[in-house]
């Protein structure tokens, strides 16, 4: 139900790949070039992901987001007219081919998000948001594409593959599998992960006949979905970009993460009792962000500062949710906290609280409770949205984004749009540096200083 996109950009340095002579001198439209191969692979792959060629729409009768698509040949494989059902409901995946008149090395470190790199993603109409006249309602323009892809080539023959997929279809795990399959088909080896759409997602997430949520697992805000941009402008709404602030990248080496998890576990000697690297890092980031808010006097906004981080519900005992499940199975676990608590509690105390909540969770009941809670609120005309303020974590590490060789070797780095970092922290893999790459927006020198002070013992400066 969340109106968000999974966005990733993969960078391929042809000069470092095994057959870098195939595309040179900016021949981005070459028959055997990456753009052509990936476009042909996409046409083949859409047979297995037909809904990817659809549109995200709002069902006025049921009061919920849904995907509408042409249930037949993928729209990319046939000509469509404006009176065609496929045009109204699907129209296909927009595949953009672009060329940058510079060499790949001139981009600098592509693992650091910045506004200039946002040009490598499909045009920003996907992220368009509108602020209501009174400022208390979020208004969003629909319908929008479920998926878009942009391939940008550089003068040296290197290229960037940017992929945007709506959460109504795929989460990070499913998006990574889609790219694995796309690149595998492009290099001629067929599907790697066969998607399983045999299980009805509506059946899995169906609320109980009499919705009875056991806990308030999420807070709802009122979101208005408008069907036409002209209608939005006619009613006096203005476009509002997400604040991008200063996107910053921090590298946490694997060795430093090991030290961190020992400290976060209060230096226990029994390895079986150690927390995970992920738990330790999330606890540290929660404290660092709270400290930065207090240091910049942003704490006047609120005393509460929740943590939201994703839990993959695959293989958690929920029928139909195994590793082949292709839908969105991310559960946003919410942990209550206050700025005072986070500033005064040592790291091992914060992580202990986090682990205690995770251990006590009945994920099957939580997922059912969330479905019930969503149903009850939608009956009152509310659609789910993240509450503010909170620290929202996007965990994209450990996913096979670097196992996406389309014939020119695996990517050398991956990135995330800077404008999507305004209200969250994203964790990505950075295998070239043997690190996790943490992306965060810090809006002032004071906020950055306070944030870095908490994490400086574990990062590469």
Automatic annotation (TrEMBL):
InterPro entries: CAT-like_dom_sf, Plant_Fungal_Acyltransferase. Pfam families: Transferase (PF02458). It comes from the Eukaryota. Signal peptide: none annotated. GO terms for molecular function: acyltransferase activity, transferring groups other than amino-acyl groups. Belongs to the plant acyltransferase family. This is Uncharacterized protein. It comes from Ceratopteris richardii.
């Amino acid at each position: 139900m969340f109106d968000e996109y999974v966005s990733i950009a993969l960078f391929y340095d042809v000069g470092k790949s095994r057959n870098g002579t195939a595309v040179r001198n900016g021949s981005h439209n070459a028959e055997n070039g990456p753009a052509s191969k990936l476009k042909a692979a996409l046409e083949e792959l859409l047979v297995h992901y037909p809904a990817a060629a659809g549109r995200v729409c709002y069902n006025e009768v049921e009061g919920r987001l849904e995907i509408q698509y042409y249930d037949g040949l993928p729209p990319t494989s046939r000509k469509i007219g404006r009176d065609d059902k496929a045009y109204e409901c699907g129209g296909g995946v927009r595949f953009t081919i672009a060329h940058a008149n510079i060499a790949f090395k001139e981009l600098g470190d592509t693992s650091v998000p910045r506004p200039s790199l946002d040009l490598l993603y499909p045009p920003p109409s996907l992220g368009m948001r509108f602020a209501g006249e009174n400022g208390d309602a979020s208004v969003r323009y629909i319908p929008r594409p479920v998926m878009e892809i942009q391939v940008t080539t550089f003068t040296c023959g290197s290229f960037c593959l940017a992929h945007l997929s709506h959460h109504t279809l795929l989460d990070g795990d499913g998006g990574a599998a889609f790219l694995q399959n796309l690149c595998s088909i492009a290099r001629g080896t067929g599907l790697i992960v066969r998607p399983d759409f045999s299980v009805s997602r509506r059946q899995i997430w169906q609320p109980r006949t009499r919705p009875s949520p056991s806990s308030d697992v999420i807070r709802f805000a009122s979101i208005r979905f408008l069907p036409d941009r002209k209608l939005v402008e006619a009613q006096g709404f203005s476009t509002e970009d997400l604040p991008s602030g200063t996107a910053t990248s921090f590298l946490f080496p694997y060795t430093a993460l090991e030290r961190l998890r020992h400290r976060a576990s209060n230096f226990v000697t029994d390895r079986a009792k150690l927390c995970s690297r992920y738990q330790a890092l999330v606890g540290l980031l929660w404290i660092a962000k709270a400290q930065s808010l207090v240091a910049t006097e942003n704490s006047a906004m609120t005393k509460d500062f929740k943590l939201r981080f994703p839990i993959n519900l695959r293989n958690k005992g929920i029928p139909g949710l195994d590793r082949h499940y292709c839908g969105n199975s991310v559960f946003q676990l919410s942990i209550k906290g206050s700025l005072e608590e986070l500033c005064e509690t040592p790291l091992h105390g914060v992580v202990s609280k986090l682990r205690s909540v995770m251990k006590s969770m009945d994920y099957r009941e939580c997922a059912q409770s969330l479905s019930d809670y969503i149903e009850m609120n939608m009956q009152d005309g509310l659609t789910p949205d993240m509450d503010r303020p909170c620290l929202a974590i996007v965990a994209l590490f450990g996913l096979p984004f670097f196992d996406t060789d389309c014939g020119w070797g695996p990517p050398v780095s991956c990135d995330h749009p800077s404008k999507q970092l305004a209200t969250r922290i994203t964790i990505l893999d950075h295998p070239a540096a043997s690190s996790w790459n943490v992306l965060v927006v810090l809006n002032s020198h004071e906020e950055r200083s306070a944030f870095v002070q908490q994490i400086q013992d574990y990062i590469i400066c």
